[in-house]
Structures are given as structure tokens and as C-alpha cells.
Write a structure and sequence with these properties.
By secondary structure, this protein is α+β, with helices and mostly antiparallel strands. It folds into 2 domains: 13-166 and 224-315, BirA Bifunctional Protein, domain 2 (2-Layer Sandwich), CATH 3.30.930; 320-409, Anticodon-binding domain (Rossmann fold, 3-Layer(aba) Sandwich), CATH 3.40.50.800. The chain has helices at residues 13-32, 46-52, 58-63, 82-91, 136-153, 167-181, 188-196, 199-202, 207-213, 225-240, 285-288, 303-308, 312-317, 332-339, 341-344, 358-367, 378-383, 404-409; strands spanning 36-37, 43-45, 66-68, 74-77, 101-110, 122-131, 158-163, 246-247, 259-266, 275-281, 296-302, 323-327, 349-351, 372-376, 385-390, 396-400. An 8-stranded mixed sheet has the order 1-5-6-11-10-9-7-8. The chain has a 5-stranded mixed sheet with strand order 13-12-14-15-16, sandwiched between helices. A 3-stranded antiparallel sheet has the order 2-4-3. A hairpin with an 8-residue loop joins strand 9 and strand 10. Helix 5 runs parallel beside helix 10 (225-240).
């Protein structure tokens, strides 16, 4: 007997519908903000992620699904969405079009991690990328979009904010951080990071590293005037939109392409997996993958963890919906032909395919969570009428067959 690979999930119809609701909310909100959908391949050449995400990151060092194709080319299942969107932006020379360019995506990513609640090897993300605007207002828009997504779903989240400065800021800060950490008791992995990418130490979850970091210098002390001004603009913009936030000097995110603004949305409802999503500014990434120097900012939200929180918006979408036709021979063929036009009107219509009794058909209508049942038996055909039953209230009414399609297609909860 075959089993699903560890760290992956089957989306049976009920859960697939929940994800579809989350996707529909994402598409609606992204479109409202003026973002167009970008769909990139599920795999890319490995070098794209190695260069953009960073060779010293956990993703590249430990988590990528990399393989060789028959042409001995190294390919990797995408571990995140930004690199592919930027690659497409450069490859298709979209930078020659109107700027800023705004894109969103919704789909699966792949990371080899230890599976647990809220962490999967095939995970789903909703992300947006804004390319071509370097002011703090762009950062604020992206952060506000993510914040609104959580609000519309009914998810309680805390926004955590930081600035890791520009390249010049970070170089000065790295020197101070390395000088502080050298000789201290940090984990073996961070000892290696200390030379290659010391900022990764700030992101380490090991207790020994966290203890040593308590007295470490703060990046906020090393921001240059331009980066400080940018960060103040972001904070002022968020305040103007009444979006609350907390500051965290250690928030560096897990990808090397970030600069200046970094942020995360966190929750206390999922235990150790407290990050619901996040993002930041990545002004050098377009140039890194072969394009011109174009500033950019984006975010990615973890759909699996949002779904795990069972937000109120999903419960509202789980109500009764659609119409179930209850009929029986010799009326079945005629009844089906009468109601079939409802499907052309966008109505969710089902009927029995196994020759069940009237009683069994009503049970099936209830199990399928239908909002309405439409009863058309032999006597009803002779009388030119149907009986409509509200499955929520139990109320019944008679409808004339000649006006049935028009009346039913306008009922609440049929589409």
C-alpha cells in the first residue's frame, strides 16, 4: 500500500475548499491593491536560489530539494517565491515597462525540514512583490496588504519590525557583532556562520546563542542617516494607517537578499511556530540576477499556518450551499432536463445518480450540505409545480415549473 511522502498532505475536498477560500481572499485583496498574478515554474536552475537566497542560509545549506535532470543540469524545487518572480521580471525585461511593477503569487514551495504542526516539506505561500519604488511608502503598502489579509480572515497577528540597514551599515555592524561574539559559547553552526554571514547568528534558536546575544550590539545603533530616515518613514507611515507594530533589533529574516526594512507577522496561537509570514526590502536582488539596479520590497505569508488557525472567514464559508434535486422515475429524466439550466446560471446543482429512495435522497442532500432541496416527483410534473425546501429552516414553498429557473437562480446560497 502506497503512502504519502513525509511532510506532505493530501487536500481532500473539504480542506481543498478551505484553501480555495484563502486563495480567493488573497487574489481579491492583491487585485484591490493593483497587483497582477505571476506564475513561475515549480523548479528553477539551482544557481538562482544559491545566489539570491544566499549560500550560507539554512534554506540553501540544508533545505533545498535539488536534483539533476537528464541533461545533467542542476534543478531545485522552489523553496520560496521571490527569486522566481525576479528572474521572470529580468528575463522578460519587464523593467522596461511602467514602474513600479506589482506582482502576486499563490502556490506551493518545497523545503526539507523536520515536519511538525504548521511546518511541511510542501508548504503554501501567498506573496506579493513590488519592484521599482525605493521610498518608505512602498514598504508601508506591502506591510499594510499583509495586515489587511489577516484582518479580513479574522486572524490575530502581531507585526514585528526592524531595519537591517544598507550594505555599508551592515558591514560596520558585522564587525562589531563578530568582535562581540568571538570566543563566546555559540553553537557549532553559528561558529561557521560567524565568518561567512554573522547576521544569521541573530536568527539562531539555540539557547546558547540566545543567551550570548543578550548583550550583543544592536543594528539600530549602526544605521546610516539615509537608512535611519527611511525607517522613520516606514514607522510614520504605519502609524498613519493605524497599524500597530513592535520593534525587534534581532529580526533579520532567513534570506540574504534583504536590506533595510524587515518585518514579520507573529501569533501566539501556534506554539513554537509563531511566524505567520513576513518580508522586507531587497534592493539589490534584481541586479544580482542580471537586471538593472531596481529597488524592491515584498512579503510571503504562510497559508498552511493560517489554515491551521481555523480563521472565522473559513467558518463563514462552510455554510450550506447549492441545490439538491430530489426526484424519482418516471419523473427523473424530465425533472433533470427542467433544472439543468440552473447550472448555466451558475447554480451549484446536484442530484441522485444511484436510484435512491426519496428518503435516502434527502439524507444525501443533508450530507452534501445543500442549502435547498427541490422536489419534483411524478405528481409534481402533472401539476406543473415543484416543492422548494430550505434545509436551514425546514420551510417549504411551491414553485411553478415555468418560472423555476429564474426564481431558484436568485435564491440566497445557491452559487
Amino acid at each position: 500500500m502506497y503512502q504519502i511522502p513525509r511532510g506532505t498532505r493530501d487536500f481532500l475536498p473539504e480542506q481543498a475548499e478551505r484553501f480555495r477560500c484563502l486563495e480567493a481572499a488573497a487574489v481579491r485583496l492583491a487585485s484591490q491593491y493593483g497587483y497582477g498574478e505571476m506564475r513561475t515554474p515549480i523548479f528553477e536552475y539551482s544557481e538562482l536560489f544559491e545566489r539570491s537566497v544566499g549560500e550560507s542560509t539554512d534554506i540553501v545549506e540544508k533545505e533545498m530539494y535539488t536534483f539533476q535532470d537528464r541533461g545533467e543540469r542542476s534543478l531545485t524545487l522552489r523553496p520560496e517565491g521571490t527569486a522566481g518572480v525576479v528572474r521572470a521580471f529580468v528575463e522578460h525585461k519587464l523593467y522596461n515597462g511602467p514602474l513600479p511593477a506589482k506582482y502576486f503569487y499563490f502556490g506551493p514551495m518545497f523545503r526539507y525540514e523536520k515536519p511538525q504542526a504548521g511546518r511541511y516539506r510542501q508548504l503554501w505561500q501567498f506573496g506579493v512583490e513590488l519592484l521599482g519604488a525605493d521610498g518608505p511608502l512602498a514598504d508601508v503598502e506591502v506591510i499594510a496588504l499583509g495586515w489587511q489579509y489577516y484582518r479580513e480572515l479574522g486572524v490575530e497577528a502581531t507585526l514585528v519590525l526592524n531595519s537591517i540597514g544598507c550594505r555599508q551599515c551592515r558591514e560596520e555592524y558585522k564587525k562589531a557583532l563578530v568582535a562581540y561574539l568571538r570566543g563566546r559559547e555559540i553553537c557549532k553552526l553559528c561558529s561557521g556562520r560567524l565568518e561567512r554571514n554573522p547576521l544569521r547568528v541573530l536568527d539562531c534558536k539555540e539557547d546558547s546563542c540566545q543567551r550570548e546575544l543578550e548583550g550583543a550590539p544592536r543594528i539600530s545603533q549602526y544605521l546610516c542617516p539615509a537608512c535611519q530616515e527611511h525607517f522613520e518613514g516606514v514607522k510614520a507611515g504605519l502609524a498613519g494607517l493605524a497599524i500597530p507594530y513592535e520593534l525587534d533589533d534581532r529580526l533579520v529574516r532567513g534570506l540574504d537578499y534583504y536590506n533595510r526594512t524587515t518585518f514579520e507577522y507573529k501569533t501566539e496561537q501556534l506554539g513554537s511556530q509563531d511566524a505567520l509570514g513576513g518580508g522586507g526590502r531587497y534592493d539589490g536582488l534584481v541586479e544580482l540576477v542580471g537586471g538593472p539596479s531596481i529597488p524592491a520590497v515584498g512579503l510571503a505569508l504562510g497559508i498552511d499556518r493560517i489554515e491551521l488557525m481555523d480563521p472565522p472567514a473559513l467558518k463563514a464559508a462552510e455554510g450550506r450551499r447549492g441545490v439538491w434535486l430530489v426526484t424519482m422515475e418516471p419523473a427523473a429524466d424530465k425533472a433533470i432536463s427542467l433544472v439543468h439550466p440552473l447550472r448555466q446560471q451558475g447554480v451549484m446543482l446536484q442530484y441522485d445518480l444511484l436510484g435512491r429512495s426519496f428518503k435516502a435522497q434527502f439524507k444525501q442532500a443533508d450530507r452534501s450540505n445543500s442549502r435547498w432541496t427541490l422536489i419534483i416527483g411524478p405528481d409534481d410534473l402533472e401539476q406543473g409545480q415543484a416543492v422548494l425546501k430550505d434545509m436551514e429552516t425546514g420551510e417549504q414553498q411551491q414553485l411553478a415549473l415555468e418560472t423555476l429557473v429564474q426564481l431558484v437562480s436568485n435564491l440566497e446560497g445557491v452559487k
